């Protein structure tokens, strides 16, 4: 009896082993019960990940656009179209300053510096043009000049006798300095810029 029990146990174990193997190694041939089909979890290195798209996008496109604004501003400044140059500089600067730290790089920082310098040059030129326009509105008339070599030269400007190096006020309250006197013209300092006024003895 003991021997028969052992033999029976071995046969039963062999049958269970065959059933288990048949259940967990069956080939798919249609619909199967998910509870009897073994689930295989892929290893981490086998998981297919979507390719990472390089952030060429926003950063590079912004730099390219800002560079176009720089070129346009530079060309406008050469043509003395100062307001247009300032407008293009502002547009490029605003684009670059809006970049996130992740999108910013050496190219964008260099371009930002170049645009800032160009904007500064355009602003100075704009200020100069504004001063020239305001100086013309003064309508200063040089009706006489006495030119000497000992810095005692004088000029008659709008009816006033002004010595070289002296200041005088104009109608709108601005102060003008008579910087130097030449034979047919005077050099005036107005708002930090040198302006020329020609001798016009007819007035």
Description:
Residues 19-25 have low confidence and may be disordered. The N and C termini lie far apart (148 Å). This protein has helices spanning 2-24, 57-78, 82-97, 106-138; strands spanning 142-146, 154-157, 160-163, 167-169, 175-181, 185-190, 193-198. The protein is an alpha+beta fold and 203 residues long. Helix 3 (82-97) runs antiparallel to helix 4. It has a 4-stranded antiparallel sheet with strand order 4-5-6-7, with helices on one face. A 3-stranded antiparallel sheet has the order 1-2-3, with no helix packed on it. The longest helix is centred in the middle third of the chain and has 33 residues, at 106-138.
